[in-house]
């Protein structure tokens, strides 16, 4: 009898494999929801999506990262997370379909994915314990059990009996009766209840993860920035041009560019935050609290920051008023001397709470420029996205060699002894900001009317200042633009040129000259390894 029944069994049909694929997706959903809930009890960064995303970012070649930043801007992290979810969904579909043939193979695949997530979590630079593996492991176990149960509901179909076959009329041959052995009602009930429960678990986990940052939110809300001992000079009234389309002189915090590798923005409780200074040439190691820094003399400065990933004419540059503590003063208290005074360390490695490492030349941060540990931005405590409670700001250097956000550690070392995060990925060890300019208006492919058209934009050369900006129409001569008043040499400068536009297509090109007499280079170079070069041009058609 058993042999007869065995002969009557058929291979899983496409409908059953489709339901198996659906089971795989549900199992994946459960895995992620449970993992999110467990991550709330461990730490948000141990979530498998965040951990795998961080590992993917670390392994991505620099040109690919640069391409993603150009294409998606500050949304690059959202795009990456959606991509990870899409890949996981596809793998879950495949594993679910395979499970209809072999539950062992399908469920083993879910466990393998969980192991990959766990490995990614414990290998993150900011991981301090094997408990970071728990969310991925527990989530994978939950998903495995669910897939095993759901596929079990999809019992193998049997061929209909002879009596049933005889009762089927010729016209009904295309609609065979439902296969026996399939617990349809049980499958639907299990799948529906699982989906609902998983959604609830996911919401609870997300809420708990968000609540874990409440202490940080409260500490930021209670932060009151003291009046600076060395306030910034008032911005000249003529520094900001009232021209439609030009970038505002001061970039609002909400519009300030954000380029970093953090998929989950760190939320650090300022009351628990500490900064350690140590390393080569440090005679007295120091540890500072947030209140320690607030109690020191603060400086306030207008400084333009630029990201090395900013293409010619790109948006990753912004100007803000920063308030903080002179970094050179802290280093001097610890007995640090720059190389020009015989100090043995030529590199300052700053470390973020998320494990990011950034290397800055010791000479640059101690040469008298307004390098600071910033506590505030545009009159308020730093936004979380921009480094609360403390970040580094060093005028004249690209962010990848200076602007460490969520900083918690400063180590003095040498460039020969240690390569920070970006250097290990092909970027330069030293990267002063290049002299650059940008046309803000008219926009590319704009269609202004014939007559007077205002061409305007910004130019920057931090630590050197802008001396001159010139504009060229098509292949004509360079025309000197009108410069707005200069705030400081560390801020960008607005410029404008009235143009008597004639009908037809035109190419507008801009270049800047800094106070050293150096003219912005015409030669186009990529962002890697030390910043893009070339003149910015826009094409317009005058109606």
Average pLDDT = 90
* Total of helices: 13
**DSSP strand tally:** 18
**Largest beta-sheet details:** 5 strands, mixed
Unreliable spans: 1-12, 156-181
Biggest sheet strand line-up: 2-1-10-5-6
Large-scale geometry: globular
* Relative strand content: 15-25%
Q: What Rg, in angstroms, do the CA atoms define?
A: 30 Å
N- to C-terminal separation? 87 Å
Find the structural class using helix and strand composition. Answer: alpha+beta
Approximate helicity band: 25-40%
What does this structure look like?
Helix 5 packs antiparallel against helix 6 and helix 6 runs antiparallel to helix 7. This protein has helices at 2-8, 14-42, 48-59, 62-72, 76-99, 103-122, 134-153, 162-166, 184-211, 214-222, 290-294, 327-333, 362-365; strands spanning 274-279, 286-289, 299-306, 317-326, 347-352, 357-361, 372-377, 380-381, 391-393, 407-413, 436-441, 451-460, 466-473, 478-480, 482-483, 493-501, 504-514, 536-542. The chain contains 13 helices and 18 strands. By secondary structure, the chain is α+β, with helices and mostly antiparallel strands. The chain has a 5-stranded mixed beta sheet. Strands 3, 4, 7, 8 and 9 form a 5-stranded antiparallel beta sheet that branches. Strands 11-12-16-15 form a 4-stranded antiparallel beta sheet, with no helix packed on it. Mean pLDDT is 90; it is low at 1-12 and 156-181.
Question: What attributes does this structure have?
Answer:
single chain, alpha+beta, five-stranded mixed sheet, five-stranded antiparallel sheet, 13 helices, 18 strands, disordered N terminus
